[in-house]
Amino acid sequence: MSAPTVYDVAERAGVSIATVSRVYRNPDSVREQTRDRVLEAARGLGYVPSGSARGLASRTTGVLGLCFPDYSDPDTIGIEDGVEDDDAAMLYSDQIIRGMERAARRHGYALLIAASLEGGPQTLVNQVAGRVDGFAVLARTVPTEELEVISRRLPVVMLAGPREIDHLDHIEVANADGQRALTRHLIEDHGLRRLVFVGAAEESPDVEARFAGYAAACRDAGLPVPDAPDVRAPLMTQAEGARAAEALLDRSGEPPQAMVFANDQMAVGALQALERRGLRVPADVAVTGFDGIPLSRLVRPTLTTVRQPMRRLGEEAVELLVQRLGDRERTPESLMLPVTLAKRQSCGC
To answer: What is the pTM (predicted TM-score) of this model?
Structure first.
């Protein structure tokens, strides 16, 4: 069966070929009703919006792709003298990229990265699909229905979060187990009882799992089990972590003995906010993160965190893509990578 073309999409949608092209090249130039009709036709046909896509059945590009939202932190405050330093944090996605680049190079592939919070998921798909032999995508970066369409043509590996599409290869880390172990450490080894959890406004699958691990540890210890995070940050950045810490300190009642953050970036921001308020970490309040980004070792006090194998996540994604390119009928795999607890100064170790 030949690959669907722009002509097929135009015929099904009842529009001209030029209109189909404009939908993908300049969507704002097409009326919404027409645009939706074209996109629906494309999804139904399994059309990949790229001129090079028509040749994918007979040749390869030598390129693998990665799609993820851009979590850059423009409001980041540097770790020295309050000077802004956008390069201070080696972010979660940076480590995945390093792992993918290393493995891709080993297999003779280049890596194409599509990272954006602007333009929506369709923009991400357009940037990658049709220009790569296969791609990895962070959970909930691209809608499931879009991935279903693309996966008919290209190998796709899902990174992080629960498995949402059974026929796709999938990799996640033991988020719940790691957060549960960290929270038990605070309760059992340090005797802390008043704990708070800071998550995200629109929970990512990873954060949901981490909060579940936190709640389980509270339940195990006979502590009140929260229904939701104490604070939901709109973005998981240093600036939002600082704001969350301020909000927690300003609440009525007894202050928390420990602030448990869903990632390291927010925890680092909290350390800075607590210092500005004249509070000592961990003497007055313990602070923990999750991810194990390099910055967690550089701040003072050093940050207690759950270290996940971010580079290995990228490496394993490439391995699964290469295996899938070699055997399209291979049974889909779902990998769970282990995490490790890094006990440092910010919890009292």
So the answer is: 0.75
